[in-house]
Amino acid sequence: MAEPPRFYQTTAIDYPNSRPHIGTAFEKIGADVQARYRRMEGYAVHFLMGNDENTIKVAKRAAELGQGPKTYCDDMARQFKEVWRALEISYDDFIQTSEQRHHVGCRVFIQRVFDNGHIYKGTYEGWYCEGCEAFKTETEAKESGGVCAIHKAPLVKRSEPCYFFALSKFQDQLLRFYEEYPDFIQPESRRNEVLALVQSGLQDVNITRSGQEWGIRVPFDEEFTIYVWFDALLNYITAIGYGTNAELFQRWWPADIHFIGKDITRFHCALWPAMLFAAGVEAPRMVFGHGFVYLKSAQGEQQKISKTLGNIVEPMEIITKFSAEAFRYYFLRECPFPGDGEFSWQRFSDVYNADLANNLGNLYSRCVTLITKNFDGHLHETASREPGVIYTDVDIETTVQQVQAHVEACQYNFALEKIWRQVLDPANQYADKQAPWTLVKTDKEAAKHVLYDLVELLRAAAILLKPFLPLSAETIYRSFNFPQPWESVRHEDAWVHPRQAADLRVLAALHDGKVKPLFPRIS
RNA sequence: CCCGGGGUGGAGCAGUGGUAGCUCGCCAGGCUCAUAACCUGGAGGUCGCAGGUUCAAAUCCUGCCCCCGGAACCA
After folding, report:
1. Which end of chain A lies in a sparser environment, N or C, as judged by fewer CB atoms within 10 Å?
2. How far from the centroid of its chain's Cα atoms is residue A55's Cα?
3. Per CA to C1' distance, which residue is closest to B73?
4. CA distances (Å), A303 to each of A168, A351, A432, A444, in order?
């Protein structure tokens, strides 16, 4: 057997100074679908997530709570992972940038860049707040009118020694790189943005801070710590052993996709490849900048998710009221991954009831019940039977190919739309047209075949939905005695019908002759 | 001022030259297996505005109006 193709994907690491909200969850869900899809299709997948911990804000927040920064970070990481697990995010590794492996790798990396002559000592000048003990960005200073927004104290111009990364030297190399790998920046619309930025000229960036306890020390000048952006991006390679485990690093790098929010595209598309060039490491294959989730108020106003507005919707709130599967479905179906989307509780219940409860869930219920009531859950003499409907009314093969193409392009909303319009709707229509509940009284044999075909469509739907709704898809699939094990189904299996050795049977657990609704309606 | 995205029936969206489509909602009918779910039909749009190109434009060109983002450390 040939070695399976490998697939290394990452998401942006999050600041642990507040709990994850639906926006951060959106990114993880989108990435998770890709990971699950690739695993299904036979790739050896490595899916990395993590938290970005080496910031002053984190150290300050910890101090406020009277905790050590490491204790604080570990506890936040635990909370993040709890949410991700609840959302069925199938990450393989979770890195905290306060970990040893990251510190060691970072120091190796920055030393290499320094040795290669791309780091030099200079002076950083900026607006400084004594209270925060931190520099403010130019924009922050301007917005607050030269006064610290937190301390209301005037900002002072302050300069301090620091090290710069010679980003400007890489302008031409970056432009050549974009030309050689036109797919590097996804979606396409972000490409011009980055091109324009790089073409307009890049400034060298300050990559160190001084006078801080918390953070990673610069190996060639231990007074300094590595500034957060230079350190954060490196998580993608330190997690897979850069500087600590050459063999592991060899196995996974370069990354196939970095999933990130559209706001940090520039760091990933310009700074990051330049850093790698400087260290003599290969650049990643693709950066995917997904859109944002906005909140829609009851008055119909669109709002940015923000702590200060106090409008954060916690993922757990939705999971508790509905389910993790419903959460996943809503964002994957309603918010185009490459573009922006909106969340409102009203919209959420509408979509939930229409697509999950009334359509998918109800189809499942009626099929199972019909077979149970009329055939005792056993369709005799259906072993090795070719289904009829999938070759006539519904072209599953085309649908599967379209769905796959959409998933690979991270167009999850289109993929789901195809499944609903081309598999589930036709199934409900077929049921209505054939009316097996009536047919069973006059021609039991014919009714049996109709049900057999309906189940065949449910089987196809379950396979197609596996990356999106892992638990519900499994429940549907395991409600029948399909020959292929659920663990190893591929998309191709959805249209290449396996000859059943045994008659089709219902295996779902029943209570008073009924199945438990997959998605109970919410009124 | 600049850059990007967008303005399509009540709401949310698809649609880059050839009879304007989908989901939700609404109205009427059917069915009754199913989670009062399902199916069929209907009403409802001068596709932001004004010009232009073309046999033909939501779709291409020009100008204008409006909305939403962005401009370096914020997913």
Report:
1. N
2. 24
3. A229
4. 36, 20, 43, 57
In angstroms, the CA A139 to CA A150 distance is: 15
Residue with tokens 């400034």: A203
CB A424 within 8 Å of CB A356:
no
pTM for this structure? 0.94
Percent of chain A with pLDDT over 90: 63
In chain B, which nucleotides are within 7 Å of a protein Cβ?
3-5, 12-14, 22-25, 30-40, 68-75
Nucleotide B69 C1' to residue A147 CA (A): 26
In angstroms, what is the C-alpha Rg of chain A? 27
A:468-497 Cβ neighbours of strand B under 7 Å = none
Residues 308-367 of chain A with CB under 7 A from strand B are 334, 336, 339, 342, 350, 354-355, 357-362, 364-366
Most confidently modeled of A64-73, A85-94, A149-158, A498-507? A85-94
Look up residue A83 and give its two tokens.
């949410």
Beta strand pairing call for A510-511 and A514-515: antiparallel
Integer Cα distance of A264 and A328 in angstroms = 23
pLDDT in tens, A234-278: 999 999 999 999 999 999 999 999 999 888 888 999 999 999 999
* b/e code A415-452 from CB counts within 10 Å (16+ = b): bbbbbeebbbebbbebbeebebbebbeeeeeebbbbbb
Q: Which nucleotide is closest, CA of A350 to its C1'?
A: B24
Residue type, A387: P
Q: Give the number of other CB atoms < 10 A from CB of residue A309.
A: 10
CA of A228 to C1' of B72 (A): 14
CA of A340 to C1' of B49 (A): 27
Q: What is the pLDDT of residues A320-367, one digit of tens each?
A: 989 999 999 999 999 888 888 888 888 899 999 999 999 999 999 999
Which residues, including other chains, have CB under 8 Å from residue A55's CB and lie 6 or more apart? Answer: A15, A17, A228
Q: How far apart are CA A267 and CA A287, in angstroms?
A: 10
Nearest nt to the CA of A355 via C1' is: B23
Q: How many CA atoms lie within 13 A of A263 on its CB side?
A: 7
Residue A181 CB burial class (10 angstroms; 0-12, 13-18, ≥19): middle
Residue A488 has φ and ψ, to the nearest 5°, of: -115, 10
